[in-house]
Amino acid sequence: DQIKEFAGTRKLFSTGVKLVVLDEADNMTNDAQAALRRIIEKYTENTRFCMICNYVNKITPALQSRCTKFRFAPLKPEQIIDRLNSIVTQEQVNISPDGIESLLELSGGDMRRVLNLLQSATMSYNRSNQQITANEVYLTAGAATPQVIDKLYLGLMTNDFTTAHSMLLEGLTQYGYALVDIVQSLSWKVLETSFPDEATSILISKLSDIEYRLSKGCRDSIQVGAVVGAFIIVRHKLIHPDEKEDGMNVEEVK
User: Fold this and answer.
1) Which of 53, 57, 176, 212 has CB 3.0 to 4.6 Å from 26, enough for a Cys bridge?
2) Is the CB of residue 106 less than 8 Å from the CB of residue 184?
3) Are the C-beta atoms of residues 144 and 151 closer than 8 Å to each other?
4) pLDDT, tens only, 91-102
């Protein structure tokens, strides 16, 4: 009703247009989007609508077809670093160079996340002028440090199933990490490793399936076994490249 009232009123002798900005538009219900579509059609001559969203697939096709899309990619580190250094200087934050690097790495190109992490780390560790290092930044974010990820990755690539499963489960319970964060970090490690294309595609596919199941509410303790199993399958594939994924040779099947 507020949008309709705002868009419907016109000023005399005014040649400009009104602008309606809807942030987080992907949280609108389908009924609300249907109502908005009719408002857009009715007041298109004197009002422009700007919808900001994270997931464009949650916007109905009817609304999308009436809009021009502008996609904003994550910021590159060189686009963030100058502003970050300026804030660190003005706020007199005692942070090490590796702490800056960890902020850029954990942000994923999100400037808001960079500033939130910096502020949280400062409130937690910088009160006594203690220098904030990469370790403090990772602790603030609740993310696994590169050293922990390297250790888990090495264990998954070398240990047997039981040992690797115990190691990964212990890492989750001891440090309180979320399995979905571990899976995302392991995915980047896989992409950095010189695997054959087939092995890489199999492992990334399985890790993406696990991440999807975790997003739907599956228990971490069960999906730990799936993570270990995915690495075991790929390790077997690297040793026996001619075998099918289930371990049976094509000739034997025939």
Assistant:
1) 53
2) no
3) no
4) 888 888 888 999
